[in-house]
Amino acid sequence: QDGGAVQVGRGDVVSEDATDDLDDRVDLRLRPRVQGFSRLLDHALLPAGVVVDGVVQDTGMTLERAATEPYEIVALDADAYVAAIPDLASLLLDAVAGGASVNFLAGVTATDAAAWWTARVPAIAAGTTTAFVARSVDSGHRADGGIIVGSTLLIRSVNQNSPHRAEIAKVLVHRSARRRGLGRALMVAAEARAMADGRWLLILDTEAGTAADAFYRSLGWQELGTMPNHAYRADGVLAPTTWFWKDLRS
Q1: How far, CA to CA in Å, does 209 sit from each of 7, 101, 201, 226?
Q2: DSSP label at residue 106
Q3: Between the CA of residue 51 and those of 29, 38, 134, what are the distances in Å?
Q4: 121 secondary structure, DSSP code
């Protein structure tokens, strides 16, 4: 699980409230390099106002709130990923501070968090893992385009008998940037890249009965099963984990 928002794979979070991404307006600028994104637009529930390839996508959802700051969803290359590790570490610390079960317990240090992301550098460089981030646009003081407030990992299977499969992990949204549709946008971007790469079967897991659990169900993920006492939450209490799967062909 990953906490702070909603969890994926016991170490992957999305959003504190499962309804955060269902009815909120966001102003996202999703770059064309997120391959296959437009292909899945017709099959995904995106928040109204999302910008894809320069075109506003109107999904007809009720606009109850407007985000005060625009964000973009970006797939990081190896160099950009390394540069982003300090922000990603802060994102992970925020998730744990918010009580999420994301591989770590309360009291995790910035060094520990940075080490977790650093250990994924070889996989990012090899292309077996792709990191998507949500970051602020036009922040002015940063050359990289803005502060990272959300993340998702697409982890492709490297086994010969599963070239069609991948895992979704570390779906995190900073507590200061929730209720803007970022969790949903990150998931749609990751699913689109997976489909474009022929990875049509996806898996993930999260703490059972949580907002993350409901969030994934709302995105069409199917429950596979639940294991009791699978992992400790940030507060040190054992909790059950539910595994989900999704066939992107349907």
Answers
A1: 11, 13, 23, 10
A2: T
A3: 5, 11, 13
A4: H
CB atoms within 10 A of CB 143: 6
What is the band of 224 on the pLDDT scale with cuts at 50, 70, 90? very high
Judge contact between 119 and 131, C-beta under 8 A.
no
The pTM for the full model equals 0.76
Tell me how crowded residue 156 is: count the other CB atoms within 10 A of its CB.
22
For residue range 95-134, list pLDDT tens digits in order: 999 988 889 999 999 999 999 999 999 999 999 999 999 9
Residue 104 tokens read as: 């770590």
User: Taking CA 247 as the corner, what is the angle to CA 245 and CA 249, rounded to the nearest 5 degrees?
Assistant: 170
User: What are the pLDDT digits (tens) for 147-194?
Assistant: 999 999 999 999 999 999 999 999 999 999 988 999 999 999 999 999
Please, what's the b/e burial string for 83-113 (b: 16 or more CB within 10 A of its CB; e: otherwise)? ebbebbbbbbbbbbebebbbbbeeebeeeeb
Find which of 12-21, 172-181, 221-230 is predicted with most confidence, using mean pLDDT.
Answer: 221-230
How many C-beta atoms lie closer than 10 Å to residue 222's C-beta?
A: 12
List the one residue out of 187, 227, 228 whose CA is nearest residue 6.
Answer: 187
